[in-house]
Amino acid sequence: MSETETTVVQLPDATQLVVSNSPHIRGGETISKIMVQVMIALLPAAIAAVWFFGLAALQVMALCTFGCMAVEVLWKKAAGQPTDSWKDGSAALTGLLLAMNLSAGAPWWICILGSLLAIGLGKQLFGGLGYNPFNPALVARVALLVGFPQLMTSWVAPQPGKWLACDALTGATPLAALKNHCSPASISDLFYGNVGGCLGETSALALLIGGAFLLSRKIIKWQVPASFIGTVALITGLAHHFNPELTPPALYHVLAGGLMIGAFFMATDMVTSPMTANGALIFGCGCGIITSVIRIWGGYPEGVSFSILFMNALTPLIDRYTIGKPFGYIRIKKEAAQ
Amino acid sequence: MSDKPRKFKGGVHPADSKALSASKPVQTAPLLGKYTVIVHQNIGASPEIVVKKGDVVKKGQLIAKAAGFVSVPLHAPTSGTVTAIEKCPGPACVSVPAIEITADGQDDWGLPFEPITDWQNTDPAVLKQRVLDAGIVGMGGAGFPSHVKLSPTKPVDTLILNGAECEPYLTADHRLMLEQTEDVLLGAAILARILGLKTAVIGVEENKPDAISKLNGVAGKYNVTVQELRVNYPQGAEKQLIYALTGREVPIGGLPMDVGCVVQNVASAVAVVEAVIKGQPSIERITTVTGEPLVNPGNWRFRIGTPVSKALELAGGVKYQPAKLLLGGPMMGFAQNSLDVTVMKNTSGILLIPAGQVSQYTSEPCIRCGRCVECCPMDILPATISQAVENERFDWAEQLNVTACIECGSCSYSCPSHRPLNQHFKRAKAEILAAKRKQQKK
Amino acid sequence: MTIILTAVLFATLLGALLALVIGVTAKAFEVETDARVETVTGMLPGVNCGGCGYAGCADFAKAIVEGRTIPSQCPVSTAVNITRIAEYLGITAGEKEKTIAVIRCGGSCAVTVRSPYNGVGDCRSAALVAGGAKGCDFGCIGFASCARACPFDAIEMRDGLAVVHPELCTGCGKCVDTCPKNLIILTPAAVDVHVYCSSPEKGAIKLKVCKTACIACRKCVKAADSETQMTVNGFLVTANYSNPPLPDLVEKAKCPTTALRLASQHAAGAYEGVSK
Question: Under 8 Å CB-to-CB from A241, ≥6 apart: which residues?
Answer without folding.
Answer: none
